[in-house]
Write a structure and sequence with these properties.
The protein has 155 residues and is α+β, with helices and mostly antiparallel strands. It is 40% helix and 22% strand. The longest helix has 23 residues, at 9-31.
Length: 155
């Protein structure tokens, strides 16, 4: 069984760094830009989303703990818009050694349970098209495509 443990402030900088790195890699692959530029974009976007870092209003950060595992298996970050009764999943990170063990599914289920208890009625997220494993996970858990951004490179 997987549990959401509120992330202590002391874990946040390491999480933010890892989240920015992962996002920069995804931007670099999907936008076909060099990693340095993608890293700059990721840092700036993170600053805009989290103007007060760990203490930004209505953002929730968790360590993912699983029974039978000696270490945390991943991280989770979402934002709640109480007025709209909606949440946005910014990051679901399952560490490589723990992937393909069902922890992503369990993390989504644990998050959904918590959000329902908070009165949230819809969850949104973004997943890059090249992340087939994540897309398959989200679709299997009932997430539907509600928007698509198309692009064409003019070489």
């Amino acid at each position: 069984m997987l549990r959401l443990q509120p992330m202590p402030h002391s874990d946040f900088e390491e999480f933010r760094s890892l989240s920015v790195q992962n996002y920069a890699r995804a931007l670099s692959r999907n936008l076909r830009i060099n990693y340095r530029r993608a890293g700059q974009m990721a840092v700036e976007e993170m600053k805009g989303i989290l103007p007060r870092g760990f203490f930004s209003d209505d953002h929730y950060f968790y360590n993912l703990l699983a029974d039978g595992e000696a270490h945390e298996v991943g991280k989770l970050w979402f934002y709640i818009n109480r007025k709209l009764k909606s949440a946005f999943l910014y990051d679901l990170m399952i560490f490589e050694a723990f992937q393909r063990k069902g922890y992503g599914k369990e993390a989504l289920q644990a998050m959904e349970k918590e959000l329902k208890e908070k009165g949230i009625t819809v969850i949104r997220l973004n997943v890059f098209n090249d992340n087939r494993i994540a897309r398959k996970l989200y679709q299997a858990q009932g997430y539907d495509n509600c928007n698509q951004i198309l692009q064409k490179f003019l070489d």
